[in-house]
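debug: dumping io for the single-chain case to check the tokenizer round-trip. Nothing else runs in this session.
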Amino acid sequence: MPLEIAKTRIGDAEIIQIIEMDVGHHFDWFLPDNNPEAIRQITWLDEPYRTADYRLNGLSQSFIIKHAGRILVVDTCIGNDKTVDEIEEWNALQIDFLGQLERAGIDREKVTDVLCTHLHVDHVGWNTHLKDGLWLPTFANAKYHFARDEYDFWLDALKQDEEGSMQSASFHESVLPIAEAGLANFIDPPTDLGDGITVIPTPGHTRAHVAVVVDAGGERLVIAGDAIHHPCQIARPHWATVSDYDKDQSAATRVKLLGDLAGTPTLVADIHFNVPSFGRIEVAVGEDGFVFVPRKESH
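debug: decoded output
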């Protein structure tokens, strides 16, 4: 699919989604409890979150929040020129993501904050871009917020990785250059970043995964990163992915997060949700789990 832009206004915040690519077909192996019959049983789960034949849809995308004079980028997708040998279609991408930022009205020099919910390869790629053989920060005037325990975990894994995995390559290309440039702000959630922006711990998918909460002038939103990969996990919070660091903890995190949100007006989105990506959570009636009620105002 071509690069796309989606825009939403929530309270006094403008949310811009830069959609990098379609990744739905990866759910066939990435979320092993998922199959067409199991998805058919989630009666509220409809298109565009699934196909007509009950397979899952999903995106790689970045959320940009303009609020209270801040421009916050949440997760930065896969990125160009990156070494992702284990997933061929992600390897050495050449796409016009930076041009799409400009078309969306985002000046990279004016971005104030970048928040990586975790440091997997598909959430850090546009932290940096390649220029004259060097990996340079894409948002040169921003603070890049990393959970300290998350950064330390992957730094230690890098030191022990003798085979050079795609995750190690990603850390070299997309994370270390940020720290070396002095732009990294290491946080120990829960952390108040000011202007109604709070980072909360949501561990399980990775060692120290986080989510971001924005109080946006009468409305509240949560971008939960990969704490939930697909809306089907709202109905089935015990469904874990093959890459979860701790599957039991990731399930417990989903149950707590969804339980806290259920029945409230707070909106939630996750990085891989199709548009409309924001919605409310309700308790399911007559079955386990929860229901995702999409907010239709995306445009």
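debug: round-trip ok. The first strand starts at residue 4 and ends at 10.
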